């Protein structure tokens, strides 16, 4: 009697499915050399990624080089068979929902005309597959005409009040003054942007004194302005399409202080579209008889960081 053992290989397990997958080729002529392949996707699982692989048609060749990279650290690229592997030099944790863009130059297209998709896989140490997904198709052909339209990255930021001055004294008639500063942001950043602010402190010298901030930063707000303090409240106007949200401390018209290191006052999740976001910061100072006389100065710095 003969016996035998049959072993079934287990299919690789994936934690999630990549979203918003895209594969673009800047010239789809079969056999064309010096071609750039571009890939984009959004992660589904938080993980410390070590590499990303992308399948290509059989017969693809060339010596690829790293082009443009967004959303993931610097790395190297290699082509083996039908797989391009992007190896991250310093693996780092990447959150779910992060948009990643990778492009590679120096490729030679397959000589076989046809329509092809690409399977993209993110990988962590092990190696262990994390997320995967399949792009739409790219058609290669000797008689095809490829049209490439590059949409530029754009961000416009305005500040209505580069400088202002206020005069206050401890008397009840003139101990509180305010000034509105309007900031606008318009961008096509698909994953939104953040607007952070920080300051150097409203201070004087000789002897040194700083009017206290009303809170540690935009995460913590106060409902009533103190007798002595420096801070701001905020009003947000948007086109309603980019998921804009003020920091928690600014809800309900509360007052917050400017921190010494940049902290987000505004966060969005998408592009602004045709209507710019408008953030009005109502800066206010109050003094009582505990505040020494003198000229107090401060520099508030705004940082807008887009996520294309």
Q: Report the span from N to C terminus.
A: 66 Å
Strand order of the largest sheet: 1-11-10-4-7-6
Roughly what fraction of the amino acids lie in strands? over 45%
Element order: H for helix, E for strand: EEEEEEEEEEEEEEEEEEEEEE
Structural class: mainly beta
CATH architecture verdict of the largest domain = Sandwich
Helix count, DSSP H or I runs of 4 or more residues? 0
Share of helical residues: under 10%
- Briefly note the CATH topology name of the largest domain: Immunoglobulin-like
Shape: elongated
- Total strand count, please? 22
Largest sheet: 6 strands, mixed
Please, could you describe this protein's structure?
This protein has 308 residues and is mainly β. The chain folds into 2 domains: 16-140, Immunoglobulin-like, CATH 2.60.40; 155-306, Immunoglobulin-like (Sandwich). It is built from no helices and 22 strands. The strands form 6 sheets. It has a 6-stranded mixed sheet with strand order 1-11-10-4-7-6, with no helix packed on it. It has a 4-stranded antiparallel sheet with strand order 2-3-8-5, with no helix packed on it. A 4-stranded antiparallel sheet has the order 13-14-21-18, with no helix packed on it. It starts with 15 loop residues before the first strand and ends with a strand.
Write the layout of secondary structure elements.
Blueprint: E1 16-17, E2 19-25, E3 35-42, E4 47-55, E5 61-70, E6 75-80, E7 83-94, E8 99-108, E9 114-116, E10 119-124, E11 128-134, E12 138-140, E13 155-159, E14 176-187, E15 193-199, E16 203-204, E17 209-210, E18 229-237, E19 245-246, E20 263-267, E21 277-286, E22 300-306
């Amino acid at each position: 009697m003969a016996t035998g053992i049959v072993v079934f290989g287990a299919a690789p397990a994936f934690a999630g499915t990549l979203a918003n997958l895209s594969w673009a080729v800047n010239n789809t002529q079969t056999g064309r050399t010096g071609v750039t392949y571009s890939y984009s996707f959004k992660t589904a699982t938080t993980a410390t990624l070590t590499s990303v692989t992308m399948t290509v048609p059989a017969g693809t060749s060339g010596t690829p080089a790293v082009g443009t990279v967004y959303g993931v650290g610097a790395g190297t690229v290699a082509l083996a068979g039908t797989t391009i592997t992007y190896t991250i030099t310093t693996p780092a944790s990447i959150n779910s929902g992060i948009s990643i863009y990778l492009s590679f130059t120096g490729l030679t297209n397959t000589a076989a005309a046809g329509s092809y998709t690409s399977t993209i896989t993110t990988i962590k140490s092990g190696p262990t597959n994390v997320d995967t997904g399949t792009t739409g198709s790219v058609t290669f052909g000797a008689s095809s005409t490829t049209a490439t339209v590059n949409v530029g990255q754009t961000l416009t930021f305005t500040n209505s009040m580069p400088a202002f001055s206020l005069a206050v004294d401890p008397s009840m008639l003139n101990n509180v003054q305010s000034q509105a500063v309007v900031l606008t942001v318009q961008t096509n950043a698909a994953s939104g942007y953040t607007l952070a602010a920080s300051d150097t402190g409203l201070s004087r010298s000789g002897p040194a004194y700083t009017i206290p901030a009303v809170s540690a930063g935009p995460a913590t707000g106060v409902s009533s302005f103190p007798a002595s303090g420096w801070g701001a409240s905020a009003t947000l106007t948007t086109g309603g399409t980019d998921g804009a949200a003020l920091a928690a401390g600014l809800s309900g018209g509360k007052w917050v202080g400017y921190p010494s290191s940049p902290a987000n006052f505004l966060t969005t999740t998408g592009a602004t579209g045709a209507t710019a976001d408008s953030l009005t910061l109502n800066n206010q100072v109050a003094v009582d008889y505990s505040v020494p006389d003198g000229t107090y100065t401060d520099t508030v710095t705004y940082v807008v960081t887009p996520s294309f």
